[in-house]
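Many groups now describe folds with learned vocabularies. In that spirit, our science desk offers one protein's residues alongside their backbone shape tokens.
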Amino acid sequence: MTRSRRTGKGEATETGPATRVLFVSRFLPEPRSSGQKIYAFNVLAQLVASGFEVEVLILAAEEAQRSVVLRIPPALRSLCPVRFMTFTRTGAWALPTRVPLSRALRVASVVFDQLPDRVRDRVRAVAPAVRRAGGDHLRWYREPSDEERAFVKRRARAFSPEAVMVNYAFLAPLFDDLPPDVTGVVLTHDVLHRNFAARPASDPDAAAAAVWTADYEAALLSRAGVVVAIQPDEAALLVDLAPKARVITVGTTFERVLSREPTARPACMFVGSDSTANRDAARWLVESVWPRVAAAVPGARLDVFGGVCAAVEGAPDSVHLNGVTAGLDDAYAGARVVLVPLRMGSGLKIKVVEAVAMGVPVVSTSIGLQGLASMVAAGCVRCADEADTFADATIDLLRDDEAHRAMGAATATYYRRFLAPEVVYAPLVEAISDAR
């Protein structure tokens, strides 16, 4: 496979073997899933579209804790080779080479219930220590195990990549095992020490803040040659954390549907995975914001999509919980306004970018617009942090056709200037091209 190598300005400079990129992750990138999976998939798709030879390595897959078999997303399957550390590929499926821990724990629970009382009491006495000892093995943000490092080292030796890209900073220790001429690239997603510090005490990962200090994250990033920030505000922070690395900003984008006519229905939508931030947002939206909207706009409808639906209880008839769906194109086509009521979180809110790419006006909190201040300036989105002002901004866009058309037109202009793929991914294509 060959490709025309290009500079950041797009001029062809030479023709030669394709630059090889080994992408290492603990979860499967997918085009229709949670934000981090969409972001990773979009990066991979653009690398392939730019002529790079890409191979994906999946380590101890997070999905393996919940599933006995994995279905490889068709879009990923057709994009590039995918190899697993603890699964064997069989067509569209990956079968485990060992029993998933979650399944083993369920079996152990059944066995435990059948034990004599005195034995169960002894097990309970040592359970906390066992839990503490085994906990690090389950945490998604853990550093690579010896087995994971050996797996990547073997595959890197066979594939001979010019660059190895890891999905999140906690996998950066993998760079220690690579030849010095291989460029290590970290796809950060977040400034993780700030992410963990901002989590409420009730969040399962809040305890990570004790380990994930700025110094700890800086030590991980010091191993990288290229650090990829997901938005410009975080890029400024990462420059301080990784002063010797090449820090670039690479967001994400989606194909724009230019033929879509805005709907006249007073319909809103919210999309979210089953995360702490999304659960909080959904409850606040349904309980504190939506009643004001529904009272002011006859026939107003709110469609909620994704795993976050499980967190919504006692929703009124005007709120429709659609769960996880195969695609959202029809949902965007039927929505007049996209709502992003996030009150916690960091990184880039993929749902905002997708809505603007689809040409749908957005009402968001300031948390949802982190790193996206240019969207506010361009008139693509409205920002409101209080329940009443958030509701009023939504009501205005449901009622005012002229304001709605103006925002729709602003999304088209913004897309051409800032969200076209050749604009969004140019820094990454240039940085990895330079790895040769």
About this structure: The chain is about 40% helix and 20% strand. The chain has a mean pLDDT of 87. The chain has two domains: 2-99+139-253+422-433, 267-419.
